[in-house]
Amino acid sequence: MSQTVDILLTNAAVLTMDETYTQYEQGAVAVSGNRIVAVGPEKDITRQYEGKETLDCGGKVLMPGLVNVHTHVPMTLLRGLADDLRLDVWLLGYMMPVEREFVSPEFVRLGTKLAMAEFIRGGITAFADMYYFEEDVAQAVAEAGVRGVCGQTILKFPSPDAPSYEDALEYTRGFIERWKGHPLIVPAIAPHAPYTCTDEILQASAALAAEFDVPLHIHLAETALEVENMVNEHGMPVIPYVKKQHIFDAKVIAAHCVHIDEGEMHTLKQFGAGVAHNPSSNMKLASGIAPVAKMLEVGLNVGIGTDGPASNNDLDMFEEMRLANFLAKGSTGDPTVVPARTTIDMATRMGARAIHLGEVTGSLEPGKRADLILVDLSPLHNAPRFARDPDGRYAQLVYASKSTDVTDVMIEGRWVMRERQLLTLNEAELLAEAQEYARRIDAFLIQREKSVLSKLVAIEGATQEESFEVQAKVAVQDPAAVQAAIQSSAALEILRFRHYREFDTYFHFSDSHHILRYREDEFIDEKGEVSNVRYRLTLIGPASRKQFPSNILLSRSRYLAPATHSLRFYREYFKPERETTIEKDRLRWRVLFKGTEFYINLDEMHAPHIGSYLEVKSRTWSRRDAEVKSELVAELISLLNVDPEKIINQDYLEIVED
Amino acid sequence: MSQTVDILLTNAAVLTMDETYTQYEQGAVAVSGNRIVAVGPEKDITRQYEGKETLDCGGKVLMPGLVNVHTHVPMTLLRGLADDLRLDVWLLGYMMPVEREFVSPEFVRLGTKLAMAEFIRGGITAFADMYYFEEDVAQAVAEAGVRGVCGQTILKFPSPDAPSYEDALEYTRGFIERWKGHPLIVPAIAPHAPYTCTDEILQASAALAAEFDVPLHIHLAETALEVENMVNEHGMPVIPYVKKQHIFDAKVIAAHCVHIDEGEMHTLKQFGAGVAHNPSSNMKLASGIAPVAKMLEVGLNVGIGTDGPASNNDLDMFEEMRLANFLAKGSTGDPTVVPARTTIDMATRMGARAIHLGEVTGSLEPGKRADLILVDLSPLHNAPRFARDPDGRYAQLVYASKSTDVTDVMIEGRWVMRERQLLTLNEAELLAEAQEYARRIDAFLIQREKSVLSKLVAIEGATQEESFEVQAKVAVQDPAAVQAAIQSSAALEILRFRHYREFDTYFHFSDSHHILRYREDEFIDEKGEVSNVRYRLTLIGPASRKQFPSNILLSRSRYLAPATHSLRFYREYFKPERETTIEKDRLRWRVLFKGTEFYINLDEMHAPHIGSYLEVKSRTWSRRDAEVKSELVAELISLLNVDPEKIINQDYLEIVED
Description:
homodimer; alpha/beta; Urease, subunit C, domain 1; TIM Barrel; Hypothetical Protein Pfu-838710-001; 3 domains; nine-stranded mixed β-sheet; 21 helices; 31% strand
């Protein structure tokens, strides 16, 4: 008496990916409801089971669906937006400004569906995500019929979906309550990373995850800089630090782990954390090569992830498997490490365990959910086929096959692709909607990039300073005498004295009249040591100067912003056509002269070596006031025994460029 | 008046890959005969030219065909034969034995055609090859309508197509004479590598290439070991060495260059050599990461190659581009190096220059041959598309597109694929024939791997030693007394004395009764120093012993071979189930006793520490002789004041394993 099942898959080369890597060259799988009922040689299975529906797999490979252990699926809408950039420029200069402007529940649903279409086409049946509006992600994933661990991002900054982290936590609690127990969706919490969260956020996230027994998904030790900063600030590397914040009270999915040592691996293992290895992203962003061979030796569950499609730029697990394999061999110098079978394991059973779905999916075994794919090895890039080595099949899949060889995909017992036709998503509609978003994002960025000011505002905010400044400059032969005159003059009341070393870099643009100055001010104390450093950006507008008697200038309009990034960052972000650098030693007095405040700078120009200059400046608000002050400036200069006739009407940049 | 051309390609996003990277968003290309006549905006081209045939490209990307700068195309028939092995095991254990058995003109033609089908499907229109029977490769390439630089291999060993290098050179001369000037084929010479050629071969190859002005294709500095050996043997790295052999008299295609320094890069540049970078192969075989960013900075023409499909395992230039890009970023820690546009350049114009076809192909410019492809960016893994950055198109191709997005391919003005249908090759036939080869190769290897002996013969040759040896072993408490007795006995004539330290590793197999012993014999001179080392493999057959009176053994049949590789090599090649190691200090006398030759060993067992033993052995050829000798052995042992009653019938392995 044979048992009736819903679907019988016959005539397949079955890779079960069970603990002993059982294969059936002529195999069959029986499915009922959402579960696998039996797996075995075709002749046994067909004797024991009768299918309401039977599918002859035509000799294709039948294997568990692939598990993509780390991604940000809605970012599919940002694929190809900006490439070949350093992480900070890419993230702060492009991704975050665009996300602030565009990310909404609608954006997230569309991006997710586009990603689900690509997942299904490439044989991915389960994944772990981290993004904003994750409940909308979950909704779209469930509609597409894909299995997802959906992690809601928690940040210490305001994010597109939460003005504060408390709001984000509250949202996450509701999300978990509503979705826990869903057949496809596992809600999760995703504190973004140690450097974007506080201790309090990490602890609260872990507590929430533990309360509901849901996974905690986090970026850990992605770059060497992150580890360096962690050691400098907290005296320990990343894994001990997050352990101290009790994150291992939760089931952790640790994304990246590029820069961890063997001790940290043992900590991860001890607490059952899964590791998400993202080879393409780590290479494309030049983060480094994760020590995967060592992690596997330690016994960690290491899965493979695509990371977000904005840093990859695809969602292709076949490529990701191959790259994970190649990097392990290339970085250890040993071509025998992470062989093909282990690679497929990482992308299926071990990957499922890494995202805490090991009981549910990742292998073809009775009782597990029916998440499976058919891979057609008849296309010529897979030919020929050798049968000698039983591991040859894995090698064929890892080294030769392509995601486009996947023809059929079943998740939770339901077909989501048959013969390369998507059954749960309308691809043409998604593509059209995605292109409309791309058009709007393009327009936004093109508008922004039209002016250096708007690019500056996009990343730093910028405040427009007072528009007018009266300014005079004179070359001086004997600066010591001038200094003595300033310090001894009875007509001057010295309000404050400062000593700086100033390092200025001017960015020039071919398509803008603006000049952007990056200034590093080193404050020199009485012992001649640097007591503090300040970084500022100044956007200097087109010359709108007026010359007063005695060459005294009314200076340009300018915008000021604190420089929170490195010079290198701004160089790559603004892409100046050329640069000029000026270094000087500045003595600066704020003084009262005839009841009016002036700044007196005595500058010794170090690079280029163009001598010493006296500068007298005063802020002004009206044309009439400026005229009065320009006369006072000439008077003040005379007072210091410098000839006001020698006032020059150039700023340092012009002097240097002449 | 518009000019008539053969084919007008309209409505295409044209990437010309000319020197200034001109793009035409709505572009067109005019082709007549085998050449490009015009490239430009569609509205200009359609005004100036009328096509006998016009193809609306439907907005697809129209770009130069990809150039695969280093491969061994017939090895497509060996794809997936053996993976996850070290280079020596892979090459000497699998590739070369199979090549010796199977490579023929027929094999080469079939493998080439299979590769050409994959090339065309993936948009490859030109390539540089190195293999045997290269005239048959050329014939198959020409029939497929692909452009190839076909390099005939020259080796210092006998090869499948030439018993000696002189034969190979003679064959190459004829091949060059017959094919020079062919519109698609450039015949070339390919001395395999410095370590597989002699000085004389390199010099003769360079002279022949220079005589006919054809390229010289060679593997250079692929592994660190190659460089180390070169420095040890010749006191210089690889590039200076080959320069000394005058190879730069020829137009060189230098494959790999993984381990070269900046000085060597300048040498390559000075002589106009092209570099073939093979990222997949270098990673899969763990050779290392070539310093591509530095090479580009130096100004070398660096192309991208797939290497042979037996070490890759595909012929997919889209993957190869992406990997070249990722490795450059990952290895330098700088995500801005080798941006997408440069990557496409390496795969087209620069690649063509690297294989000395720069005048002919690699870009869409009037006068160049019409080698072009259409890439469909409508599949969802390419969506959406951003237009802000003109380099975005290159990024889309490098980071997101797949070889399966190529729909149409034209080479030399002739369509070889239209709408994914191959026009010059019968794919189904090729696949069937390839599978038949795979079946035969499988059978050959399965037969070979049935026995450890045949695996041994496949790589080393092995000689069957005398089948019988009479042998007796006794534990001794006072080895110094036994040594004194040997040296002083009047009955013994000492013919030779040797002192060794012996390191034995025994490989045990679960599926064989054979045991393979790897022995390292250190010869110790009178000063106690190692004067020489010998490595031997001994295959010890199933026990076929007979016990004589006094426990004297007739030993097992055995096969001997010199061990030319490392213990590590044999371990990976033979894959023993387990190993045993034994170390001992051996004093060995060859003596005459009553007119018969015996070996007396006095062994002090170091690891494991199991004491000292006296062994007496003699070779024998007949059962009768063995009986006589076994009596003499007992007599000799008594002579040395050792009790023959204590003779044990075990060899060291058995003693240790007990």
